[in-house]
Amino acid sequence: MEDDFKSAWLMYSIVHSENEDKYSKLTDIIAVADYANHAIMTFSEFKEGLTALENLGFVSIKDNKIVISDLFKDWWISKFSNKKRLYVQKEISDISKYISKLKSSLIEKAELTLSSESDFKNAVDEYLDKMNSIK
């Protein structure tokens, strides 16, 4: 999977899982990612995508929560606020293009402090348990 797509897929998932407290829960991010791409992202995809998004200044980690930056929110509003209907793949594609545009001028690596692999696995398990209980 292309790096920019992975980052865009994650960013889409963060945007659409943001709650009223203005942060995204890991379980909700996993759920939106599954909806958008019909797949549960791996820890590696999550970690690499989050690192890229932090480096781009799209998100930050505050109190172990993912928070969307004003930089990204401003771009999002300018790109999508007047759209009556949004399509998953169009949004992901546009985010990917924006990432590609900005990525070359920014540092590529940052440390992940939000979640360990076991935290991520627990969130995936929690999400799958919820999905199995619906059946």
Question: Could you name the ranges where pLDDT drops below 50 across 5 or more consecutive residues?
Answer: 107-113
Reading side by side through the largest sheet, how are the strands ordered?
A: 1-2
Can you write the helix and strand succession as a string?
A: HHHEEHHH
Number of domains: 1
Number of strands: 2
Shape from CA axes? Answer: globular
Short description:
The chain is mainly alpha-helical.
Give a quick set of tags describing it.
135 residues; mainly alpha; two-stranded antiparallel sheet; globular
Structural features, described:
This protein has a two-stranded antiparallel sheet with strand order 1-2. The protein has one domain (3-134). It is mainly alpha-helical and 135 residues long. It starts with a helix and ends with a helix. β1 and β2 (65-68) form a beta hairpin. Helices cover 62% and strands 6% of the residues.
